[in-house]
Write a structure and sequence with these properties.
CATH superfamily of the largest domain: Jelly Rolls
CATH architecture of the largest domain: Sandwich
Largest sheet: 8 strands, antiparallel
CATH class of the largest domain: Mainly Beta
Number of domains: 2
Number of helices: 1
Oligomer: single chain
Order of helices and strands: EEEEEEEEEEEEEEEEEEEEEEEEEH
Length: 303
């Protein structure tokens, strides 16, 4: 067994997106090889509807998959194929844009005006860039949850974990997408296949992630529930942890516990040509996509 080194820990940056949605971006529109096959990760969280209600009006996608995971509030969506729907708290939508789709996503919040969700973009290999669009909408009750003896809870959205299989299937990047909660002071190790690129995103509480150079993950500074934890080195809310190569990560939860996403996938290792929500392999393909948008041939006709 080998601990994956922590290559980087960085805070998500405030960003405006869509028609004026205030969100935090953990990564995106930078070096696409860092977390290949993943391209972008946004955390949209607010308690004031003025900061999210303008939403993400009609826009195109081609060559990628978008994964929306809602924790609080609702998101209404519709697209150029005639699909409409609403994502509620705890639900997931995995959209394969393929050859092209126009859609909109409008966050509504809950009765208290709160909205919280995540959106992840996954790249598609060249062989699937022009496949037909499809959706996988998953309700909260369809997502299996595993509870360990120490109180650790893991929601398995995609992939297999601790004998449970997530409901989203047939994804190009062979991803694993887990929502993990660890109680205060608990130390936990998770296996990740060596061939996968992996990252964690902390969004509640704090945790120390063990590094290969410091396998304990602590510097013996403060005791939390009988275990010594270096609070200074802990990663807190809205922190991205990018891991290097290995087959496991070890996490030490802080004094209030921690909740984070653990996401990994098989790298595609192909050239990336990127123009906003359109991601292809060459600039010629980008130019063709823009031409298709102009002449009305970007998307397939609605059925």
């Amino acid at each position: 067994m080998s601990i994956r080194p922590v290559v980087e820990a960085r805070s998500a940056k405030p960003t405006l997106e869509g028609a004026g949605v205030h969100l935090h971006r953990a990564f995106g529109f930078q070096d696409p090889t860092e977390l290949d096959p993943f391209l972008l990760f946004d955390d949209f969280r607010n308690e004031d509807p003025a900061y999210f209600q303008k939403g993400f009006p009609w826009h195109p996608h081609r060559g990628i998959e978008t994964i929306t995971y809602v924790l609080a509030g609702t998101v209404e969506h519709s697209d150029s194929l005639g699909n409409t729907g609403k994502l509620g708290a705890g639900s997931v939508q995995w959209m394969t844009a393929g050859r092209g789709i126009l859609h909109q996503e409008m966050p509504l919040g809950n009765a208290k005006g709160q909205m919280h969700g995540f959106q992840l973009w996954g790249n598609l290999p060249s062989s699937m860039k022009m496949t037909d669009p499809r959706y996988q909408d998953v309700a909260a009750q369809e997502i299996p949850e595993v509870i360990d003896d120490d109180g650790t809870r893991v929601k398995v959205i995609v992939g297999e974990f601790w004998g449970k299989k997530g409901p989203v299937e047939g994804i190009a990047a062979d991803p694993q997408y887990l929502d993990i909660s660890i109680p205060a002071g608990v130390k936990k190790t998770f296996r990740i296949d060596t061939y996968r690129r992996a990252f964690a995103y902390v969004f509640e509480g704090q945790a120390a992630f063990a590094d290969a150079s410091q396998p304990t993950g602590v510097l013996l500074e403060k005791e939390v529930m009988g275990q010594e934890v270096n609070i200074r080195d802990m990663s807190g809310d809205r922190t991205l942890i990018r891991f290097g190569t290995g087959d496991e990560i070890t996490v030490q939860a802080g004094p209030e516990g921690v909740r984070f996403l653990l996401i990994s996938g098989a790298p595609i290792e192909e050239p990336v040509a990127w123009h906003g929500p359109i991601v292809m392999n060459t600039q010629d393909e980008i130019r063709q996509a823009i031409a298709d948008l102009r002449n009305g041939t970007f998307v397939a006709p609605a059925h």
